[in-house]
Amino acid sequence: MTRASLLAGGHQPDPAALAEIRARYHLDDPFPVQYWHWLSGLLSGDPGTSMVLKEPVTALIGARIGNTVLLVAYAGLLILLLGVTAGVVAAVGGRRVDQALTVITTVLMAAPAFVAAILLIWLFATTLSWFPVYGSGTGFTDRIHHLTLPALALSGGYLAYVSRITRTEVRAELAADHVAAARVRGLPRWTVLRRHVLRNAAPPIVAVSGVTVAGLFAATAVAEQAFGVAGLGSLLVQSAARQDMVVVQALSLLLVTVFVLVNMLVDVLNAVLDPRLARAGAV
Amino acid sequence: MSAMSIPMPLRKPAAKRGAAPVAGLFCALIVLVAIFAPWIAPYDPDALDPLNAHAPLSARHLLGTDDLGRDLFSRLIHGARTSLAGPLIVILAAGTAGAILAITAAWFGGWFDALISRTLDVLFAFPGLVLAITVAALFGSGFVTPVAALSLAFVPVIARVMRAAALRERNLPYIEALRVQGFSGWHICVRHLVPNLAPLLMVQAAIGFGYAMIDLASISFLGLGLQPPAADWGLMIANGQPSILAGFPQQSIAAAVAVVITVVAFTAVAERLATRFGGDHAPVR
Amino acid sequence: MLQFDDLRLRVGGTPILRGVTLEVAAGEAVGLVGESGSGKSMTVKSVVRLLPPGSRTEGAVRFDGVDVSSLDAAGLRRMRSRDVAMVFQDPRAVVNPVRTIGDFLTEVLRDQGVGRTEATRRAARALSEVGIGDAVRRLHQRPYELSGGLLQRVVIAAALLTGPRLILADEPTTALDVTTQEEVVAILNEQRAARQVALMFITHDLELAAAVCDRIAVMYAGEIVEVLPAAALHAGARHPYTRALLNSRPGAVAPGERLRTVPGVPQSALTAPPGCVFADRCPHAEARCREVRPVFDGSAACHLLEAR
Amino acid sequence: MILEVRDLRKEFTGVVAVDGVSFAVREGGSLAVVGESGSGKTTCARIVTGLEKATSGTVELRGSVQMVFQDPYQSLDRRQTVRGCLDEVLAHHRKDRSRTAELLDLVGLDRALGDALPRHLSGGQRQRVAIARALAAEPRLLVLDEAVAALDVSIQAQILNLLVDARAATGVAYLFITHDLSVVRHVCEDVVVMSRGKVVEAGPVARVLGAPEHEYTRRLVASVPRAGWTPTRAVSRD
């Protein structure tokens, strides 16, 4: 079955209708030309209309973007708070603590979002019923309630990764000469940790956290699909399965744009945190 | 360097040293299982037995059966094949392409390096999963499409690390000494630069294998990879999801555990290699 | 004021120091000279307990008669911040790269409860004392904006700022050019003399040590093999290793002549033989040198010198 | 003259590293280029050996050139044995492979060390291997870029003796890049003093270091620690 006949909605479509559809969606043009039609539409502010859902892409995205942003913010907060804290604790907390956290992060890093998702669903659907395992919810509190499990599933691996990087960076700073010098000058342990270790380890941690949060937008696909959240990720997956190229193109472009923007934001933040980088960039 | 840096203890905790050989053995075992799956599996993984659906764990069915009465243990064993072959192809393709791009970029420098680096930066902005989903929408689902898309997405990940390393290596005095000796660039690259970068490439490949496995399984889980009735771990997790709510979590849990343990084992081996040869971890995407 | 009493140090089972005995009087400058691996740096770091993890010490380091290993955390901090200061080899590694020179200079004072204005005023004065003009502008600069020589002077200013009674200088000029080295050493000398501060000066350059210090201790393989007055370096050096070091310098012989070298490579405390540490390289070694460890008699540790 | 450098100039994106430098090395001679960091002396060496291209000026070389680097820990391929390293160079220059043992003897390395990897060797031993590798090609000029700076005093003395012997045995000329005036006095006949990219003084070692004429050379000579030396604070030059 060709894409045009799929759109015409029948096994034996009327040839005239088929031709009309092919012309309207430029399906006879070679792929670059099709792409150009879509791109020029996008640049004039209209990403087009879904061929399958017969709805404007802007409306489809508008209805779902709130859930995705909320989910990313929720998961991002978990990643930053828990990940960075665990990393710092592992770096300064002695060997037992470090070993325990290493085991936890190793398992978390290997547990992708969909594995975490089915484990959470199993746990909360059969044993505990603190959080709903399906749907997006309505109103802010209810949505947070619904998004808790997706956010947990989404953040696990990234949280472990951020914690690992934090641990490595903090340990590297702890071993740095200027930290030894600060200790020899008799500064209190906490002052050394705050003013020299954490302050200097911050730029790489911010960079990695930023890339991680930027990547979350793409990763929402799995978490939203697993928990039936109506968001951009699940829309992308469903549109891909229906070969609804107009929506897929618009969404992947949006996700890549967000990824690039967040990365730029992180670069700017890093230049503020580390004056050496600002200078290197200026020369 | 300065005389005052305090050396970190070189000895790893005993537990970690003990874990690497076990992980290595497990990796070897899982590869053997994948290769000899048809001889090991007790049942035909696709044999339906609707009367015996959702059978519990027993001596006949070690892990029970799924919603269609297929033996889960046999499906898990057969699933190892695509679940391992996919990441393997991704890593071989992306590793080869990434290393070649990285080393040529670092070696020639100038506008050639700038061109390759910028192209990789653009490619890097496409998260592997989004790229794979988009490509699946274009060319349809299956085994080949996601593997090809992920291979492409992994090239910049590996190439970035390798380029930085190659650049560092290229500026070491021993390379300059060889240049002064009058050796050709080709000789220096092939006989010195590449062999010295090989351990790092190995580490990158081993780490990347775990990530590729997770990404491919994610795509299967989303229904954009292999299609039923194929026995693939990611697909099994997705197929088992409705049964969880009905109280039969075996299919999803068994496949999930297989994915996690395999990734943990490969990552443990990779980290062992990394501490042995040095090098950084690949950034997660 | 400072006493090393048969100090032994092992790090994770590896011997680093094999019995160091030395005294530093108040206001005195002692040079610690030796090749890499001789343990001179660890000797000095043991004073402020800046030792790698897994270190075990025997013997004692006493400051004002108090064994530093017996100090609790607060006592150690008080000693580090008020009594002893340290200057390191590479100023660029030692000053926090993301903070300003002013932060670096004032943070210890601020921690001791000195107000911000007062701390800044004292920091500016300290900079001008080590010959850095335009102190107010310098306080707002960051380490990468200063040359290595200038930065080392900042480190020295920071060391002097809290009014210590002992400065530990670990190869403070090795990373600097020779003309810059002269300036930094001159400033160190001048400020030390003006304030009556004691100094332990680590270097591998015997002539530099002689110019800066009152006495010189020569270290080899984790031991002090000879202690002698700086003025008597050339005429008074008696230990074969000290003589070997003096003869190894290119300036020791007329141009074109062969240098009188000692064979082999420097030993470390780990590879040291049971007898005299220098026996396997010593041109005068006898049978007993290889078997019996010579006793340090206050000026040298050598069987051949005992006999005379 | 084995090497003649005329009016050499090198710019790195806006910074002039070498500015109108000329010098020459006699057949079998030994010339030192001394200066402090940033003087441009290493850039000159790298241009002579072809590692950098000059912005302008000429380098005339009559015969082959080899180089020994400062850092003995990174100037050898960490995966290559001593013998492998020397064999590779001998084969490349179509020299007799059997000379490996001869080269090891020349630089005073035990033949048994032929199968050792760099990580098994001390800094001095590595620098001997680097010198053997450079001499394997039988060059007419050897550029030594701070080749003894990273070594301990007693090892440095051994290597300096080795360099004097090797020159006597092979007739190779030296271009010695260094900051250490005592080394210059010991092994060189002529010296060029560089400061901020320019040659400030040149001539025979005894004359230039014994009775320096330029103000910078005077300060350089005066700041070397020696018997009876008292460091003084020059006019502060922030």
From TrEMBL, chain B:
Topology with respect to the bilayer: Multi-pass membrane protein
Domain ABC transmembrane type-1: 80-270
Compartments, record wording: Cell membrane
Keywords linked to the UniProt accession: Cell membrane, Membrane, Transmembrane, Transmembrane helix, Transport
GO CC, any one term: plasma membrane
Predominant subcellular localization, coarse grouping: membrane
PROSITE patterns for this protein: ABC_TM1
InterPro entries: BP-dependent_transpt_permease (IPR050366), MetI-like (IPR000515), MetI-like_sf (IPR035906), OppC_N (IPR025966)
TM ranges: 20-41, 84-108, 120-139, 145-162, 200-226, 252-270
Pfam family, one: BPD_transp_1
Coiled coil location: none
Domain of life: Bacteria
An example Gene Ontology biological process: transmembrane transport
Family membership: Belongs to the binding-protein-dependent transport system permease family.
Protein name: ABC transporter permease
Organism from which the protein derives: Actinoplanes utahensis
From TrEMBL, chain C:
InterPro entries assigned to the protein according to its UniProt record, in alphabetical order: AAA+_ATPase, ABC_Ni/Peptide_Import, ABC_transporter-like_ATP-bd, Oligopep_ABC_C, P-loop_NTPase
The keyword Protein transport is annotated on this UniProt entry: no
Designated name of the protein: ABC transporter ATP-binding protein
Biological processes per GO annotation: peptide transport
Superkingdom assignment: Bacteria
Residue span(s) of domain ABC transporter: 2-246
Subcellular location: Cell membrane
Species assigned in the record: Actinoplanes utahensis
GO molecular function: ATP binding; ATP hydrolysis activity
Entry's family note: Belongs to the ABC transporter superfamily.
Keywords: ATP-binding, Cell inner membrane, Cell membrane, Membrane, Nucleotide-binding, Translocase, Transport
GO cellular component, one term: plasma membrane
Pfam family, one: oligo_HPY
SMART domains: AAA
UniProtKB/TrEMBL annotation, chain D:
Domain of life where this protein originates: Bacteria
A Pfam short name: ABC_tran
Alphabetically ordered keywords of this record: ATP-binding, Nucleotide-binding, Transport
Organism: Actinoplanes utahensis
Protein name: ABC transporter ATP-binding protein
Gene Ontology BP terms: transmembrane transport
Annotated family: Belongs to the ABC transporter superfamily.
GO molecular function annotation: ATP binding; ATP hydrolysis activity
Domain ABC transporter: 3-221
Record-linked PANTHER family: D,D-DIPEPTIDE TRANSPORT ATP-BINDING PROTEIN DDPF-RELATED (PTHR43776:SF7), TRANSPORT ATP-BINDING PROTEIN (PTHR43776)
SMART domains, A to Z: AAA
Gene3D superfamilies: P-loop containing nucleotide triphosphate hydrolases
